[in-house]
Amino acid sequence: MRANKVYRKFFLSCIGLLFFVFAAIATFNGYFDPLMIFSSVHPGNRYVPVIDTRVQKTNRLYHGNEKYDALLLGSSRAEQFRQQDFLPYRLFNYALPSLYPDEAGEYLDFFLKKNGNGRVVVFLGLDFYGSNAITHEHAKPPGYYHASVVDPFQTVSPYIGRNALKYSFKMLRGKKEVFKYDRVTIDKVTQFMGQEESDRQFNKQLDLYAKTIYGDYRYNRDYYTILRQLKEGHPNVEFVVFTTPVTRELFALLVKSGRLPDYDRWLRDIVRAFGRAYNFMYVNRFTMDRRNFMDAHHLYPERATPLMRIMTGRQTQEDEGIGVLLTAGNLDAQIDATIKQSLHIQETMP
Question: What is the pLDDT of residue 280?
Fold first, then answer.
């Protein structure tokens, strides 16, 4: 009998100790909050490591109390844009790595449901690779992430695990990261890369695009339908559509890969669906300047400001020649000029 009491006491002590350990881990993780679940902001948790963008940004939107009058949707290319460059709009940056057009509607619906269904402006960034029917990288469906933040258990359960603890310790130590989020603005704070690392990433991406994204390509015949349904399904949304810029070398690879006819079709489908779009994906003085890019197709946030000035009607003289507003009226002439220029650039490149 006495032995049973000893074992019982030992067992309860172990349970109590485990509870204390898990409670301490959860409290520690909750204080630093790397998944951006809670609304509290303090010096220790303002800057958050990039862990899972879809989880973090969906948490931040769903559990936050802010109201927005603008939304940014797009891939990791658009994610580099800063909120301050969209002023006076109060904008939520919901750009996500490898976001494809067929996902955009669900993320927009989730935003509108949380934010209210009033009239908003949606800045929609479109990438040429998104027109590829062969998707080389696709995340879980949007509904997976939306369900996980609505369920309280799924939301907080990661905070009793080691993975969140690892990132909380990084925040405690103030470890430098190439990418991190400002939980107040949702800006993606990006450290400038050294030239050697930038060149390494640049060449790696050119090789990837040559072998897969441009090399293994088939135009998505449903692309126009996807865009049209996105627009028609949201009559209270004002869409400001733009194509994302890439370096001259990556555009030359598109030409070399024989994708110019698909590029032509892509621009025409975008304008046919939305009526107008800002085209930044062509060779100009901005895309020829490697200092604007951290690799082959991602801008440094500080360098992207001219694009926002153009899209929000605050264009200055220094922004001339960086982008072209495509409409049904000028589409043929602009595409012809872009293709001729691109062919010339390709001929003069080593």
Answer: 95
What's the number of domains the chain is made of? Answer: 1
Amino acid at 320: E
Q: Which residues contact 110 (CB under 8 A, 6 or more apart)?
A: 58, 61, 62, 142, 146
- Model confidence over 57-103: pLDDT tens digits? 999 999 988 999 999 999 999 999 999 999 899 999 999 999 999 99
pTM equals 0.91
Q: Is residue 228 part of a domain?
A: yes
CATH of the domain at 93: 3.40.50
CB–CB of 236/278 below 8 Å?
Answer: no
Does residue 262 lie in a domain region?
Answer: yes
Neighbouring CB atoms inside 10 A of 126's CB total 31
Domain annotation covers residue 54: no
Residue in 12, 21, 35, 44 with CA at minimum distance from that of residue 157: 35
Residues in Cβ contact with 313 at an 8 Å cutoff, skipping those fewer than 6 apart: none
